[in-house]
Design goal:
Part of the tripartite ATP-independent periplasmic (TRAP) transport system. With about 425 residues, the chain is mostly helical. The chain contains 21 helices and no strands.
């Protein structure tokens, strides 16, 4: 009965068009009413406590770093550098998009920000070169979701806070899987364009490569600063977010001189708006998470999945399938906030490494950003690239299947995540 009320209140409010944050509050209030413990003070207190977290300060700064990166010329220089390396091979612009996405992922941590930048910079070039419009848009969409996986990652910050798992360990554990997803896109793109007769760009000379590298050096140094700083404990993930934002601002205004002071207010406002949405979701989800614990829902679910606790791989497979289904209808942040307090007791009972689970859980949720009908990244690429939603959806399928294949490979072979994570974190 408790589970029915939880799901009924949440899904019913969403079906009525109530925003997800308010649906979460309504869900928590419904559970409190059902358990005869409704108290507005408890509701308000849990809402405030949900956002009162030092690690969550990383969210606004990473969002700001992404905004500055796109407006200050860092993204463009990364794309230009990738162009000089692989732009001359068959299907070269696709490989440029994948390389640029991996590098940019280590700057912003936001799939939507990377999708907007890649669609604005590369999609017109790919269209003029004669690439299939739907396939190109699909590739850039799939490449953009590497951003929540390679550090710094806003998804890892939210999950780390919700699950009480080390964000630094999550960051380090996300590096190898992010690169693997990029490799899967690389192979898929190679297979799809191997017979296309598109004239590639001329091979860049060594001098042009060095010039592009020199121009992009300050942009490429940022991920090194963040990763090295986290690995050796120079700063926490929250401090890394501040470093990233300040560094991006300094490079954009002082070195590249492409960002004017008059533009800062707009960038701060955009980052603040996105942050406000995420923080309110986190705050509202805390009410539901608290009620889920009080109502003992995780214990009920553990009892249901008891036969799978001794078979962790099969249990992970079932959890990933459930997350896939939820991800088709819900955005990344609310999915993390709703499912994390439900799944974590099961993961602990089965003896599964929480960091390993967190990586696969975030990968699954990231791919959910490109799964129709609710695909935030698909909408972003369609809007920025002036492509119809149907075309983007059609083009993304082969890349989405490849990324899901990599994710389930990690489910059946956990060492693909655990071994590199131990090396990176030391």
């Amino acid at each position: 009965m408790t589970i029915a009320i939880f799901l009924g209140a949440l899904l019913g409010a969403m079906a009525l068009g109530v925003p997800i944050a308010f649906s979460l509050l309504a869900c928590g209030a419904a559970l409190m009413w059902h358990m005869d413990m409704f108290d507005p003070q408890i509701l308000a207190q849990n809402t405030l406590e949900g956002a009162n977290s030092f690690p969550l300060l990383a969210v606004p700064f990473f969002m700001l770093a992404g905004e500055i990166m796109n407006a200050g010329g860092l993204s463009r220089r990364i794309v230009n550098f990738a162009m000089t390396l692989v732009g001359h091979v068959r299907g070269g612009l696709g490989y440029v998009g994948i390389m640029a996405a991996i590098i940019m992922a280590s700057l912003s941590g936001s799939a939507v920000a990377d999708a907007a930048a890649l669609a604005a910079l590369l999609l017109p070039m790919m269209n003029r070169a004669g690439y299939d419009k739907a396939r190109s848009a699909g590739l850039l969409s799939a490449a953009s979701i590497i951003a929540p996986i390679i550090p710094p990652s806003i998804g890892f910050v939210v999950f780390g806070v919700a699950a009480n798992v080390s964000i630094s360990k999550l960051f380090m554990a996300g590096i190898a899987p992010g690169v693997m997803l990029g490799a899967a896109l690389w192979l898929t793109w190679w297979w799809l364009v191997r017979k296309e007769n598109i004239q590639p760009a001329p091979r860049a000379s060594r001098a042009e490569v060095l010039t592009a590298l020199k121009d992009a050096t300050f942009a490429l140094v940022l991920p090194v600063i963040v990763i090295v700083g986290l690995k050796f404990g120079v700063f926490t993930p929250t401090e890394a977010a501040v470093v990233a934002a300040v560094y991006a601002l300094f490079v954009s205004t002082v070195i590249y001189k492409e960002l004017k002071l008059s533009q800062l207010y707009g960038l701060f406002e955009a980052a603040a708006r996105t942050t406000a949405v995420i923080m309110f979701l986190v705050a509202a989800a805390m009410v539901s998470a608290w009620m889920i614990t009080v109502a003992n829902l995780p214990a009920e679910l553990v009892a249901v999945l008891q036969p799978l606790l001794d078979r962790p791989i099969l249990l992970m497979f079932v959890i990933m399938v459930i997350t896939m289904l939820v991800g088709t209808a819900m955005d990344m942040t609310p999915t993390i906030l709703i499912l994390t307090p439900v799944f974590m007791p099961i993961i602990k009972a089965a003896g599964i490494d929480p960091v390993y689970f967190g990586v696969l859980f975030i990968i699954n949720n990231a791919i959910g950003l490109i799964t129709p009908p609710v695909g935030t990244v698909l909408s972003t690429v369609a809007g920025v690239g002036k492509v119809s939603m149907d075309e983007v959806t059609k083009g993304v399928w082969p890349f989405m299947v490849a990324q899901f294949a990599v994710m389930f490979l990690m489910v059946f072979f956990p060492a693909l995540v655990i071994v590199p994570a131990r090396w990176f974190h030391g």
